[in-house]
Design brief:
Chain lengths: 368, 367
């Protein structure tokens, strides 16, 4: 007797709804077992997580603070993934976007009218992110260089470059020699929603998600990208410029991550310093997959991920559990959900070898 | 496909909201407690199990709990990244009604100041920074004094005249420690050099160990460190080499190859400060105690340290206690230029902003 995975003929509606819901319940159950073992009440813990993330306007705004960069990088990554271009460089693109925005904020003040400073900083961030993604895109499109390596490696270059700047030439001269640039002038602060730290980046993310949805689903270019992703040979027959489109899509992808970085430095930290990104660019990959590359869904999945990040701290602060428990719970919740998505497209089938004919069973084995 | 996503997402949202609702309803009605305990929270950069920096702060917290009993209620959160994330955590404690919050890493300074301005009734205590407010104080210790003494031990006992120093970030706190240590080394052994490797992390056992291994490969026979864990000490021990610990008495965790450790004793500071909070006498301060106050000390010596070296250290210690501090001239920088003239001593302000290496250090400040 063997168990095989079989692709579903048609994806059943029922499975589509049931599988994620069941996965989520399984997640909670698995987490509960773990919590019981470590002596915590699972109901209280989950309630604390939920309260800490959605329980009040302020708590929800902090969840959004985490979700905004995930939304923007998630959107960026999903454009690239649609073309099966494995851009895992969102972290670097975000970082460089932050660097470029900081450059404008710190060194352009006084040279351009104050009201232009913030838009220019954001634009600079997008351009920097786009160029940083453009390099591997160009290498892939015209020289066939594997993009997973180049995008990943460029992350380290960007992160170390940023560190070089705030440890070295950009270090705050009034900062007692401590790393980090001076705080930006208030004219370059990205407006925040009243009384919270959630900033204008949220509006950017929502507008861009809607625009992307339209472009990807309703325009010729979106259609071309889809064809390239699904079948490059067909795309070539249709006369779609593959190399050009890869570069264009990746410029857009990088610009979105660069925007995330620009929003982080102008909206949250208001200076370039350590901890600009806490792995947003990598979490974006999970966000993009869980959202199945759908721009609108990215927004919601990013909020869910933001809630998991914030909720993890609540596990510590209110339940007195160790920090690692927060991380374990995050994993426990994500894993069944990702695994579960497999079951919407595949199903398990138990195969029994036919006992009467040993020869037939052998052929089955050989064929498998 | 799309419809399924929407359904899932909305179902998820409903579930989460339901959970939140349950949570809210479960909240028991608070009975009128006779005496509210004074609530104190600690924000840690690493886990108390690091056996180093955070371990010592948590030991201080436990001393407070033991001494003040039901008068106080303490809580802590570990592994909080420096930067904007810390603001959320600190604000969360302030919102939960904590009376005093300690943040024990340099990078929490600006986030703490930001929150301090929003909660004027909460007392904020930041370790190792320099910014204060009406309700925010700083506290730190002159660990450089103990580092100088440990340098005397290392300088006396190195045979290769090559001492490795695993260091976190090129910021004044760390540079000051390296300089004090090197001055100690060179006071007994003018030929010895201190080789510095930066890790750009306070707490990362793997990177700390690798840095120590690189220094050992470079010929170091003693490893000193400014990190949060015991990994550099273990790496030295595995090579049959000696080391100088930091933060806690690392000999207790690693063995006699740790000759001694400059250590922190936060208990009495935490106790005094929290008592001041309870009785209302707390006011903004910038605490920087040293060997005299006992907030820093040198751990007991390993039996490997000969008696004559112990004597050298004891003499130097009485010298410091008598008021001859570590950073008194003549002191040259790395290139041999005189930085502090004979008969002069650096001011606290200059020490807090130190951004140059003394003669005898091999390494650069920018990483």
């Amino acid at each position: 007797m063997r168990i095989i995975f079989e692709k579903r003929q048609s994806i059943s509606r029922r499975a589509m709804v049931l599988v994620p819901v069941v996965s989520f319940l399984v997640s909670l159950l698995l987490g509960a077992i773990l919590l019981l073992i470590s002596g915590a009440n699972p109901f209280e813990t989950y309630a604390a997580m939920a309260r800490g993330t959605f329980g009040s306007t302020y708590n929800f705004s902090e969840t959004l603070v985490k979700a905004i960069p995930l939304m923007l990088t998630g959107l960026g990554v999903s454009i690239a993934f649609r073309m099966r271009f494995w851009n895992i460089g969102a972290e670097g693109q975000l970082t460089l976007g932050g660097v470029a925005a900081a450059w404008v904020a710190l060194y352009w003040a006084g040279r351009v009218p104050a009201f232009l400073l913030l838009p220019l900083a954001i634009l600079a961030g997008m351009v920097a992110g786009a160029l940083w993604a453009g390099v591997p895109a160009f290498l892939k499109a015209y020289l066939g260089v594997d993009e997973t390596l180049t995008t990943l490696m460029l992350n380290y270059v960007a992160i170390l470059f940023a560190a070089h700047l705030y440890y070295g030439p950009w270090r705050d001269p009034q900062g007692y020699g401590f790393p980090g640039t001076a705080q930006f002038d208030p004219s370059v602060w990205l407006p925040r929603l009243v009384g919270t730290r959630a900033h204008l980046g949220l509006i950017f993310a929502i507008v861009l998600a809607l625009a992307l949805w339209f472009v990807l689903n309703r325009t010729r270019w979106g259609f071309e990208l889809k064809i390239i992703g699904e079948n490059q040979v067909a795309a070539r027959y249709l006369g779609i410029g593959i190399a050009r489109n890869i570069v264009l899509a990746l410029l857009l992808s990088g610009a979105l991550s660069g925007l995330a970085g620009a929003c982080e430095v102008t909206g949250i930290s208001r200076r370039l310093q350590q901890g600009l990104s806490i792995g947003y660019g990598y979490t974006a990959i999970i966000v993009a997959w869980m959202a199945q590359l759908n721009p609108i869904a990215v927004l919601f999945v990013a909020i869910l991920m933001g809630a998991l990040l914030v909720g993890g701290d609540q596990v510590q602060m209110t339940m007195g559990l160790p920090a690692s428990m927060g991380l374990v719970l995050q994993g426990m919740i994500l894993f069944p959900m990702l695994a579960g998505s497999l079951f919407t497209e595949y199903r398990l089938r138990i195969v029994r070898p036919e006992k009467t004919d040993p020869l037939a069973s052998e052929t089955v084995e050989a064929a498998s | 496909m799309k419809r399924y996503l929407w359904l899932t997402l909305s179902l998820l949202s409903i579930l989460v909201l339901l959970l939140a609702g349950c949570g809210g309803a479960e909240e028991p009605a608070e009975p009128d407690a006779p005496a509210e305990p004074y609530k104190v929270a600690f924000v840690y950069i690493g886990p108390p199990g690091d056996l180093g920096w955070t371990y010592e702060h948590d030991r201080g917290r436990k001393i407070v709990e033991e001494e003040l009993g039901a008068q106080v209620e303490t809580a802590y959160i570990e592994n909080v990244p420096e930067g904007p994330d810390a603001a959320r955590v600190i604000r969360d404690y302030a919102q939960q009604g904590y009376d005093m919050i300690f943040a024990t890493s340099f990078g929490y300074m600006d986030p703490m100041l930001e929150v301090a301005q929003e909660f004027p009734d909460v007392k904020f205590e930041h370790c190792s920074g320099y910014k204060t407010a009406d309700n925010m104080s700083t506290y730190f210790g002159r660990i450089y004094q103990a580092r100088y003494l440990s340098g005397i031990v290392a300088g006396s006992m190195t045979e290769a005249n090559n001492i490795g120093y695993v260091a976190a970030f090129p910021i004044p706190e760390v540079i000051r420690g390296i300089n004090a240590f090197t001055l100690g080394v060179r006071s007994v052994n003018p030929d010895a050099e201190v080789h510095v490797v930066w890790t750009s992390t306070w707490f990362d056992p793997v990177i700390e160990r690798e840095a120590a291994v690189a220094l050992l490969d470079g010929g170091a026979d003693i490893i000193a460190q400014h990190q949060d864990t015991t990994e550099p000490q273990k790496a030295a021990q595995e090579r049959g080499m000696l080391s100088i610990g930091y933060d806690s008495d690392m000999r207790a965790f690693v063995g006699d190859t740790v000759l001694t450790s400059p250590i922190w004793n936060w208990g009495s500071y935490y106790l005094d400060t929290i008592k001041a909070g309870v009785d209302g006498s707390w006011s903004t301060h910038q605490y920087w105690g040293g060997l005299k106050e006992g907030v820093v000390a040198l751990a007991e010596f390993s039996p490997k340290v000969p008696a004559d070296v112990v004597k050298l250290v004891e003499d130097a210690k009485s010298d410091i206690l008598a008021g001859n501090d570590v950073f008194c001239g003549p002191i040259n920088d790395q290139d041999g230029n005189e930085k502090v003239a004979a008969g002069q001593c650096m001011s606290d302000g200059d020490m807090l902003g130190m951004d140059w290496f003394v003669e005898g250090v091999v390494g650069t400040i920018s990483d």
